[in-house]
């Protein structure tokens, strides 16, 4: 479906706001940035900002939702069985996205609860992956939730470390390493819950 002029204008405006937020976040903490400063930096009217967001944290919500959408769309390319056999394929797409937008990802991860962001994004990736275990997996079980959160924290730590190092390793290398660690952890949680 072709995007309308309004959609493109909205995307451009949001991109200007996000870029202004990124620039200002290098000068001060997010909670110190005023809407006035943000709109002046983005060269937009204050009312235009409020059409899209209620506050600065709404920009981070939008960024997080976009990451989840990218993760979900990447996952849609694979069957649950393909993901179970090789999660690194979808993770490579996501690591490539993170590398391209690393400044924005750091902005979000530094200003949000890392665990909640990581869990939300990883659930986008592994929602389909976990359906390959549907008959043997109780995702509400305490043991599963604990292990899933443990895995999530580990993956977010890996991502942060990689980005802080300047993304020196390729997305493929990171995807292979992370995929092994993540799937082993999730499968361990699934097997433990079913035993």
Automatic annotation (TrEMBL):
Keywords carried by this UniProt record: DNA-binding
Any one GO molecular-function label of the UniProt entry: DNA binding
SUPFAM superfamilies, sorted: Homeodomain-like
Domain HTH tetR-type residue range list: 11-71
Annotation: DNA-binding region: 34-53
Keyword DNA-binding in annotation: yes
Alphabetized PROSITE patterns for the sequence: HTH_TETR_2
Keyword hit for Aminoacyl-tRNA synthetase: no
Protein name: TetR family transcriptional regulator
Species in which this protein is naturally found: Faecalimonas umbilicata
Lineage: Bacteria, Bacillati, Bacillota, Clostridia, Lachnospirales
């Amino acid at each position: 479906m072709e995007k309308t002029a309004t959609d493109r204008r909205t995307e451009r405006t949001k991109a200007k706001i996000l870029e202004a937020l990124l620039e200002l976040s290098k000068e001060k903490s997010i909670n110190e940035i005023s809407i006035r400063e943000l709109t002046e930096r983005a060269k937009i009217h204050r009312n235009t900002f409020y059409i899209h967001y209620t506050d600065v944290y709404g920009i981070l919500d939008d960024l997080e939702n976009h990451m989840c959408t990218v993760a979900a769309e990447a996952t849609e390319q694979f069957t649950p069985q393909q993901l179970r056999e090789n999660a690194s394929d979808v993770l490579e797409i996501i690591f490539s996205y993170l590398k391209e937008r690393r400044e924005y990802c750091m902005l979000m991860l530094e200003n949000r609860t890392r665990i909640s962001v990581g869990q939300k994004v990883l659930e986008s990736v592994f929602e389909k992956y976990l359906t390959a275990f549907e008959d043997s997996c109780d995702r509400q079980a305490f043991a599963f939730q604990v292990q899933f959160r443990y895995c999530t924290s580990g993956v977010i730590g890996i991502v942060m470390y990689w980005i802080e190092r300047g993304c020196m390793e390729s997305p493929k290398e990171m995807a292979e390493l992370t995929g092994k660690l993540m799937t082993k952890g999730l499968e361990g949680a699934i097997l433990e819950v079913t035993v």
